[in-house]
Amino acid sequence: MSSIKVTGGVRLKGETRIQGSKNAALPVIAASLLNKGVTVLRNCPKILDVYHMINVLEELGCKASWEGNSLVIDTADVKSAKVSESSVRKMRSSILFLGALIGRCHEVSIAYPGGCSIGNRPIDFHLDSIRKMNVSLNEENGIINCQTDKITGTDIFLKFPSVGATQNIILAAVLAEGITRIYNAAREPEVQELCTYLEGAGARLKGKGTSFIEIEGVERLHDVEHTLSPDRIAAGTYMAAVAAAGGDAVLFDVPVHQAEAVIKVLEKTGCKIITGDRHVKISRSKRLLPYDLLKTKPYPGFPTDMQSQLMTVLSIADGKSTIVEEIFDSRFQNAEELRKMGADILLRNEKTAVITGVAKLKGAEVKARDLRAGAAMVIAGLAAEGETTVNDAVIIERGYEDICRDLGNLGANIHYCGDDAG
Ligand code: EPZ
User: Fold this and answer.
1) Whose CA is nearest to atom 43 of ligand 1?
2) Atom of ligand 1 nearest to the CA of 128
3) For 107, which DSSP code?
């Protein structure tokens, strides 16, 4: 079991750069199957979820290799359309292979992704949409089998702007016959980035970044090179670290426009933030201010993936804040972990947390309950008095290349002490 040890009380100072985007990389890796050739993915983060997607590609018969920070994928030979149960169980985002394999092979056999600690995470929007595209689909003992002679473009109305469902529809529609129109599509930057990658490979799409996306099916795609955006959630996480610990830092390679909602909230808590084209200078000296009512929303609203980190920040603010989690049904796991450090958090119900700021958190032994909650506990350790150990920290490596390296660049007293630690 890997852990991260943090000694708090150090104001952060220095510069660090932001890795490539996890949530842009994963759908693009799945999408590479749609071209029978080579994809070069620059600025690809070396994180567990990316390694996992590569494993699935190799299981299917594809090849992948690294050239520095570029991932080179060759999908010329696909020998199977079966995504193993263990693969999907390990990572929910494997479900993005559903649309990609239907697009490439006109068939797919893939296990039902289980829920996870932030909710039961159904995939009904994905399946209902794919069925409408002339794909026959049945579910047997937790395995979804799809088959079609011809994918047919159609109009699809999403009840909720689901990121994954929007992406799966796009993946199935790119090589379909006819036009697919998605109404109430997700507007997240990661959906936009998938569209940009696919356009670079010869797909025909309109409306990326809006709630209405139109895809005109084409015969085939061609080789493409794509540079991934920096990770807006990693950027937000490190801004929240400076907010919580105090200090003065510069983050380079920040997708500033994509981080606007987070920047606005942190400014309201009293952080001073100066933004450039691709960098952010953030400082916090006085005690943090509370945030009256923070609601997570689909993009461009405040991202649910930053909710845990803001709970940590607000746990030491001078007053009462309320967070409403409107995206997932149980994403307040880290409240219990923060309480171990002296935080005062009341869960009014599954969706509403009331945080009464305390003057100081105290170092403790805590757990990483999920990827972002784990990062939030590292931030809590930075702000606390004394030493904090975040156990089960390997889950943090699913989305952060090296959180100890990045925060260490800002002067944090932080290191891994995993099984392999010396
Ligand atoms: C993506 O998950 C992200 N993952 C999540 O980031 C992010 O939290 C989420 O979008 C919301 O922004 C990746 O991009 C790999 P959704 P996704 O479909 O696609 C419900 C992280 O920490 N829903 O927009 O799974 C669902 O239960 C991860 O990086 C259905 O009910 O999110 C949830 O309540 C965590 N039926 C809501 O919609 C469906 O068929 C949003 O889910 C699909 C979703």
Assistant:
1) 123
2) 40
3) E
Radius of gyration of the chain (CA): 21
Rounded Cα gap, residues 358 and 374, in angstroms = 21
Same domain, 12 and 37: no
Long-range contacts formed by 145-151: CB under 8 A, 24+ apart: 145/107, 145/108, 145/109, 146/98, 146/102, 146/107, 146/108, 146/109, 147/106, 147/107, 148/102, 148/106, 148/107, 149/106, 150/106, 150/177, 151/102, 151/103, 151/106, 151/175, 151/176, 151/177, 151/217
- Does some domain include residue 422? no
Between strands 63-67 and 70-74, the pairing is: antiparallel
The residue contributing the CA closest to ligand 1 atom 39 is 123
- Is 359 exposed, middle or buried (CB count within 10 Å of its CB: 0-12, 13-18, 19+)? exposed
User: Secondary structure of the chain: what % helix, strand, coil (to 5)?
Assistant: 35, 30, 40
- Domain co-membership, 219 together with 238: no
Q: How far is the CA of 241 from the centre of ligand 1 (A)?
A: 24
Q: Which domain holds residue 394?
A: 3-19+232-417
Rounded to two decimals, what is the model's pTM?
0.97
Cα four-point dihedral sign 31, 371, 360, 251: negative
Distance separating alpha carbons of residues 192 and 137, to the nearest angstrom: 28
Counting ligand 1 atoms within 8 A of each CB, the residue from 156, 327, 330 with the most, and so the one to mutate, is 327
pLDDT per position as a tens digit, 33-70: 999 999 999 999 999 999 999 999 999 999 999 999 99
Mutate which of 50, 130, 163, 262 for ligand 1 pocket (most atoms within 8 A of beta carbon): 163
List, for residues 366-412, the tens digit of each pLDDT value.
Answer: 999 999 999 999 999 999 999 999 999 999 999 999 999 999 999 99
